[in-house]
Specification:
alpha/beta; Rossmann fold; 9 helices; globular
Amino acid sequence: MGDTPRREIRSFVRRAGRTTRAQTRAMAELWPRFGIDLPAAPLDLDQVFGRHRPRLLEIGFGDGEALAEFAGTHPETDCLGIEVHEPGVGHLLLALEDRGIENVRIICRDAVEILDRWLPPACLDRVHLFFPDPWPKKRHHKRRIVQPAFLDKVARALRPGGMLHMATDWVPYAEHMAEMTDGCEWFEKDGGTGTPQAFAGRPQTKFERRGMRLGHEVRDLLYRRNDAPLSSPADC
């Protein structure tokens, strides 16, 4: 038998969801303005945004409320959002149009793939990962996005001194995030845990509010990319 490619374990499941008429209109009319159709080569973010400014990447932005809030209050920062679910993309597009926000661009693909193939080294100043799927069952822990290989890819994309900000309302996942990131040679802890008010720049999200109604404890984890160089392409 010939070798068969190993299927990559994904941290998400594509949900069909219900796209509203307004979201469908947004995908048709606003995607050319805010969306990125990926080229063959890595992205030139100066060209994408038409300027050279600090850059934020939010991975899995959901319905985009946190990303829109951050972009609206930080017009000096170029914000790149990645989300695989079209209803969420449509929701964010409508918010950007309604609020007149121009410093956001959107990619509708797997974030790991984008980090691996389309983002050049040291191109980001911040990476946000807010309330990713915790995959609570032990047999599903391998699907959690925060794993050593993922952190290596984030480290490659962050400039030295750049920030990785993660948040979750699932304490065992927060412990997993901390264990993985504490063990990564490219990151140094820059903060502990706390409420949303303890960390400037993170608006409360729908998932967070739902978790808090259920009595979940919200934890934020902040890490700074150190200046240790990536030793080889294999580290990326």
